[in-house]
Specification:
alpha/beta; 6-stranded mixed β-sheet; 264 residues
Length: 264
């Protein structure tokens, strides 16, 4: 599969007649690209993901998707005591068939998937005992063994510490560059989009959006307007490379004058 795998034109959705979450949104995503969706809460990121996944029919506009999806949710909770191997085997469900048992080749594929993400030693560990970062890696393995063409990631670094955020972003880049997977991700971290995305869609308002390469659209002006807070783009040198990142300018906290009597 080559060329454009996702495209939508004049897309919009209203949960109530005439009350659009967004409308007239247009974009296209090529095979192997990382496409980041950015916007404040309530702007429609989750609604757009549901439309892409086919779980929600758009109210207006056209949508074309070429390929098989795998969805990696923001927080993955399980009700049963599944092992990590069981979780990855669930990605083979369409290949195993209804009421059938996983074959040896399915288990081998699941183990290879875990091994690829450095999780082979956790195959028999209960999934619910893992850290957030480890859970994400297991779910990535499940998506890979499902042989998906497109990964949909809902805030993949949510609730992760800095080390695990870096780990997940690294894997997003690898899966895109090395495996040719198309990745659509939502994020509340503009600097993550700047680091790994090929395109970014800024959901500015109901009928107002900006789409393009992150280096061009993730400007201080655009992001300050998007989030309603000051944003700064900062460049620096690291190990011989010029790196740019984005930072939210926090308000200055005015400290109260010290009560001199407390010193007596």
């Amino acid at each position: 599969m080559t060329g454009t795998v996702i495209s939508f034109s004049a897309l919009g959705h209203a949960y109530r007649p005439g009350n659009f979450v967004f409308h007239n949104y247009s974009a296209s995503v090529k095979k192997g690209e990382v496409f980041a969706l950015l916007g404040p809460n309530g702007r429609g990121k989750t609604t757009l993901l549901k439309i892409l996944l086919g779980a929600l029919k758009p109210t207006k506009g056209t949508l074309s998707v070429k390929g098989h999806f795998a969805f990696v949710p923001q927080l993955f909770q399980v009700s049963f005591d599944y092992s990590c191997l069981d979780m990855v085997l669930m990605g083979r469900a369409k290949k195993i068939g209804l009421f059938s048992q996983p074959a040896q080749k399915d288990e081998e594929a699941a183990l290879e998937g875990l091994d690829r993400f450095g999780m082979a030693d956790y195959a028999n560990r209960p999934f619910h005992e893992l850290s957030g970062g480890q859970r994400q890696l297991v779910i990535f393995a499940r998506a890979i063994v499902a042989e998906a063409d497109i990964l949909i990631l809902d805030e993949p670094t949510s609730a992760l510490d800095l080390k695990n955020q870096t780990l997940i972003l690294d894997w997003i880049s690898r899966l895109s560059r090395n495996d040719g997977l198309t990745i659509v991700m939502t994020t509340h971290h503009p600097h993550h989009a700047l680091a790994v995305a090929d395109q970014a869609l800024l959901m500015m308002g109901q009928a107002d959006h900006i789409v393009g390469p992150p280096s061009e659209v993730l400007t201080e002006a655009n992001l300050s307007a998007l989030y309603g807070v000051p944003m700064k783009r900062v460049g620096f040198e690291h190990e011989g490379r010029h790196i740019e990142t984005l930072a939210h300018v926090l308000p200055t906290v005015q400290s109260r004058p010290m009560d001199q009597s407390s010193l007596n």
